[in-house]
Amino acid sequence: MNLLFRVLTAVVLLPGVVWLVWIGGWWLFGLVLLATAVALYEYFHMWAGSDVRMVATGVLIGLGPALVSMLAPRFLGEAMVATMLLTVLGFTVNPGPFETTWKRMATTVLGLAYCGVTLTVLYRLRAEAATPAIGAGWIYLAMIVTWGNDTCAYFAGRLFGRHKLFPLLSPKKTWEGAVGGLAGSIGGALLAHFWFAQHLGLVEALAIGLVAGVLAPLGDLAESLLKRSFEAKDSGRLLPGHGGLLDRVDALMITGPFVYLVATFVHPLLDR
Question: How far apart are CA 8 and CA 140, in angstroms?
């Protein structure tokens, strides 16, 4: 039944996401901003629980760097510094129990950076590219190597999984699933190379798929670590069969920035 819900959710939502990436502009901007807001909400809700003021404050402050990253990225560093100063000021005025103040402050800063910025690079891939088609292609590449990994890892783990990968964080993940996921990322990168990203060389596509195939499960494990730390089973219940939004985009929050770095520094966007 869980698999059915996973498939139905993907079938319903994925075409809309693909379409919004293609048309770009304010539609894509709105999608990324909404996803960032939901990710911030789920993070702070897992941590702060019923503390509505803390959750709302985390979402509102976290959206600041997100907006700067998408609208004026050259000022992102200054925005992050301002965000940290606001966090320090807030805990100075209202420190709460002194023995846990530093933990709560560090947890807040982590959430603001982790959930407030990482997804915005997807919009920037589209906005900073030489042409809309190339920008959309980079986003599709990030999506296909990430979700190709997740899908192949899921089925390889179910069919062949025997040896636990990291039972302390994720008891269901296996080495067999990780190998299947790696194959899915490499296959996805090759598919992109031959289909819509011909500007990528074959070796370059293989390298991107290989690195993404390692980063994607690490992103998933990182979110599992957060859930364990917050004693939460899922980040939320927004997506039937998947849990919360963070449960669905945790790997993309790592592979997306990686693809952006490749597009910007190794394969300059503006040169294409």
Answer: 20
Count CB atoms within 10 A of the CB of residue 227: 20
Between CA 153 and CA 185 the distance in angstroms is 10
Structural domain tally of the chain?
Answer: 1
Instruction: Decide if 193 contacts 205 (C-beta within 8 A).
Output: yes
Domain that holds residue 120: 2-271
DSSP letter at 196?
T
In sequence order, what are the residues at sequence separation of 6 or more whose Cβ sits closer than 8 angstroms to the Cβ of residue 220? 150, 170, 173, 250, 251
Q: Cβ neighbours of residue 162 under 8 Å, at least 6 residues apart?
A: 174, 176
One-letter amino acid identity for 48? A
Give the per-residue pLDDT at 176: 93
Structure confidence at residue 219 (pLDDT)? 92
Closest CA to 42 of 55, 29, 53: 55
Number of Cβ atoms within 10 Å of the Cβ of 184: 27
> What's the pTM value of the predicted model, to 2 decimals?
0.91
Amino acid occupying residue 141: L
Residue 78, pLDDT score:
94
DSSP string, 209-240: HHHHHHHHHHHHHHHHHHHHHHT-SSS-SSBT
Which stretch of DSSP H or E encloses residue 165?
Answer: strand 164-166
Nearest 5°: phi and psi at 80?
-70, -40
